[in-house]
Every structure is written in C-alpha cells, then in structure tokens.
C-alpha cells in the first residue's frame, strides 16, 4: 500500500498558487488511478490564510477524492517539517504502509527524498507535469534548490 504526501506550496491572496494547484491535482490523479490509497496534505498558514493543507483539501474534494482518503497536516512551514509531521501522522495509523510517494515538483524531489530517508521513510517521488508552468519561476526554484540540497546533504539543515 502506498500513501501520498503532498508537500506544501504557497497560498496567494487570490487562492492557491499554480504550484500548489499542480501538485494537488497530480495527487488526485495518482489517487484516482490507484497508485496511492490515501494522502497526507502538508502545509500550515503562510503569508495568506487558510493553511496550504486546507486549500489542498478543497481542490481534492473538487477533483472527486473522498474526505476519508485525506489526513491534514496543517502546522508545517518547511519541507523538513512537512515530512516529519506527515511521518508522525502516518505512524499514528494502524495501516501498514509499504511505500510513501512524495508529491512535489521535479526540482524539489531530490531534497525531499533525502529528508524522507533521514526520517526513516521508504520514499519515492512523483512530480506533476510542467504544462502551464512558467519558465522563469521553475528556473528560479531549481536554482534555489542547489544550495538547499547541498546544505541538507552535508547536514547543515535538518
């Protein structure tokens, strides 16, 4: 059995950021195709309420994912917290989890999997299509991940 962990992304004043929407709709497709059996929605309140997890829940409900397939983790504010808090929620259940699928963007997945392995999770990742994504924000995010990955790899961050 595989459980999906959707990593948070910004909520804008007008609603979900394109990144948050893409990740969440990708998770809905994975659920509907049977690749994952349930979801942990990660992300607290950032610059604009509500929490990232609450916004994900609304998107998933609109995409036909049932409420009982979701667990909200709405306190985290970093990738490390997303994964650690999700892990704790997963361990609270009686379900035997064989695999965790981290749902995030391609540039973020290597660092997220590194954090997950250190947190004791057997994790793979799945990333949404870049269809509709703008080149500059994707490039900027990818460039930001390089020093972040290095910092995590040499354990400057946890």
Notes on the structure:
With 158 residues, the chain is α/β, with parallel strands linked by helices. It has one domain: Rossmann fold (3-Layer(aba) Sandwich). The protein contains 5 helices and 7 strands, in the order βββαβαβαβαβα. It has helices at residues 18-32, 52-62, 79-92, 109-118, 135-153; strands at residues 2-6, 11-12, 15-16, 38-42, 70-73, 99-103, 123-126. It has a 5-stranded parallel sheet with strand order 5-4-1-6-7, with helices on both faces. It has a two-stranded antiparallel ribbon with strand order 2-3. Helix 1 (18-32) packs across helix 2 (52-62). The longest helix has 19 residues, at 135-153. The chain is globular and about 40 Å long.
Task: Describe the secondary structure blueprint for this structure.
Blueprint (H helix, E strand, L loop, with lengths): L1 E5 L4 E2 L2 E2 L1 H15 L5 E5 L9 H11 L7 E4 L5 H14 L6 E5 L5 H10 L4 E4 L8 H19 L5
Parallel strand pairs: 1-4, 1-6, 4-5, 6-7
Antiparallel strand pairs: 2-3
Features:
158 residues, alpha/beta, Rossmann fold, 5-stranded parallel sheet, two-stranded antiparallel sheet, 5 helices, globular, DUF218 domain-containing protein, Rossmann-like_a/b/a_fold
What share of the residues lie within helices?
A: 40-55%
The overall number of domains is 1
Outline = globular
What CATH architecture would you give? 3-Layer(aba) Sandwich
Pairing-aware structural class of the strands and helices?
alpha/beta
Strand content of the residues, in percent? Answer: 15-25%
Please describe the biggest sheet, giving its number of strands, its sense, and whether it closes into a barrel. Answer: 5 strands, parallel
Classified in CATH, the superfamily is HUPs
User: Number of helical segments?
Assistant: 5
Report Rg. 15 Å
Unreliable sequence segments: none
Give the termini distance in whole angstroms: 27 Å
Mean residue pLDDT: 90
Text of the CATH class: Alpha Beta
Domain DUF218: 5-146
Protein name: DUF218 domain-containing protein
InterPro entries: Cell_Envelope_Assoc, DUF218, Rossmann-like_a/b/a_fold
């Amino acid at each position: 059995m595989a459980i999906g962990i959707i990593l948070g992304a910004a909520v804008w004043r007008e609603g979900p950021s394109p990144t948050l929407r893409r990740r969440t709709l990708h998770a809905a497709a994975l659920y509907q195709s049977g690749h994952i059996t349930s979801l942990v929605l990660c992300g607290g309140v950032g610059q604009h309420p509500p929490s990232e997890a609450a916004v994900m829940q609304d998107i998933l409900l609109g995409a036909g994912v049932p409420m009982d397939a979701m667990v909200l983790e709405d306190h985290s504010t970093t990738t490390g917290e997303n994964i650690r808090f999700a892990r704790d929620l997963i361990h609270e259940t009686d379900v035997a989890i064989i695999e965790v699928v981290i749902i995030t963007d391609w540039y973020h997945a290597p660092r997220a999997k590194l954090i997950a392995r250190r947190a004791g999770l057997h994790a793979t990742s799945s990333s949404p299509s870049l269809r509709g994504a703008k080149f500059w924000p994707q490039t900027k995010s990818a460039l930001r991940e390089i020093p972040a990955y290095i910092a995590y790899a040499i354990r400057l961050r946890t």
